[in-house]
Amino acid sequence: MDIKTLPDDIDALKEIIVDYNSQNLILQEKLNYLLKTIYGQKSEKQKSSTVTSSPNLLDFAGLSLPSKKEEPPVVIETVTVPEHKRKKRGRKPIPEDLPRENVVHDLDEHEKICACGTTLSPIGEEVSEKLDCTPAKIIVERHIRR
Question: Across residues 68-86, what is the average pLDDT?
Fold first, then answer.
């Protein structure tokens, strides 16, 4: 539009501003959508983005866009899904009713003495079990490392 072709009526000018502003908002939304699809996250788990738009021309004039008819609120039903338990990974524990034989791996007596001369005491122990099968005899060896 040229300045010479603009109408002198204030209401007509306001209507032109509202029309241009609505077109601007539509184009801005299209641009934001295209930028988001091109440069945005590609995952299904997208965060809600707050895209800043250009300032509204009507905000400066103290006007607002014509309001549309209010639609009734959408009711969203929630569906509960029953829980399930996952199977544990790794080996199954060796049954407790099998006989066990303890094999203790310990330091020599001269290695249990600190450089300052005091005797070291065990802090903890690590226990691992191994199933040992001998002909006609099954036994569990428990290796205890101190």
Answer: 75
